[in-house]
Specification:
two-stranded antiparallel sheet; 3% strand; Signal transduction histidine kinase 5TM receptor LytS transmembrane region domain-containing protein; mainly alpha; 227 residues; membrane
């Protein structure tokens, strides 16, 4: 592949910047601590489905059309939804993204729609495997790369004529893999930093608590003198 993929990759990076800003706002919300603790309420799950489903739709709307396909970061929303809150949230976000992708038509609409749903499902299974916790940066980025490889393989299997499927995949696979991996990396680093901040805060609170207990256990000066 030549350098012709660079313009597409640059556009995808711009899309990711918007998605990352939205994701950052989520990490600063009141519901995010319960997400990190692995115990999101039903209300929180619904919010996450709508939020990441909306990001998936945005990834489709802002994509780049090429040979009946759309170069996009649609799968990033369902992937992150599953990694954060489990398979039902991931599938829900994926269904929203898939429904919108179907409405756009094109020869890759079925492959792309199915991939969005599987992205949420597989992300949720990883969440379960890691005991309802975000898997971490390395696993998340590797998952994003493998998910886009799966996307390309599904395109080759489902899209006909086959020659056109090969032409699409050969043009879009690199920018889509790099863009989704980059977006996942940035989001995973945000989660990692928030986890670190929470741990430091918990250690600080525990230390202050022990200091207060020690101070409370020391007899006051007047009591010492009177004894």
């Amino acid at each position: 592949m030549d350098g012709s993929f660079l313009p597409q990759f640059n556009v995808l990076l711009q899309l990711i910047c918007v998605i990352i800003v939205a994701a950052y706002l989520l990490t600063q919300s009141r519901i995010f601590p319960e997400i990190l603790d692995g115990n999101p309420t039903i209300k929180t799950r619904i919010i996450l489905i709508l939020f990441f489903g909306g990001l998936s739709v945005y990834g489709s709307i802002s994509g780049i059309e090429f040979l009946g396909s759309v170069i996009n970061v649609r799968d990033l929303g369902p992937m992150v939804a599953g990694l954060l809150a489990g398979p039902w949230v991931g599938i829900g976000a994926g269904l929203i993204g898939a429904a919108y992708r179907l409405s756009m038509g094109g020869i890759t609409m079925y492959a792309c729609s199915v991939t969005a749903i599987f992205a949420g499902l597989f992300g949720g299974l990883i969440w379960i495997y890691y005991k309802k916790r975000f898997a971490g940066t390395t696993v998340a980025v590797a998952f994003a790369v493998l998910m886009e490889v799966f996307h390309m393989a599904l395109t080759l299997i489902m899209v006909r004529p086959y020659d056109e499927a090969v032409a699409i995949v050969s043009r879009v696979y690199l920018p889509m893999v790099l863009a989704n991996a980059a977006g996942m990396f940035v989001f995973a680093m945000m989660v990692k930093n928030i986890r670190k901040e929470r741990k430091i805060q918990a250690e600080r609170d525990a230390l202050l608590g022990r200091m207060k207990q020690n101070v409370a256990g020391v007899p006051c000066t007047d009591d010492i003198r009177s004894s």
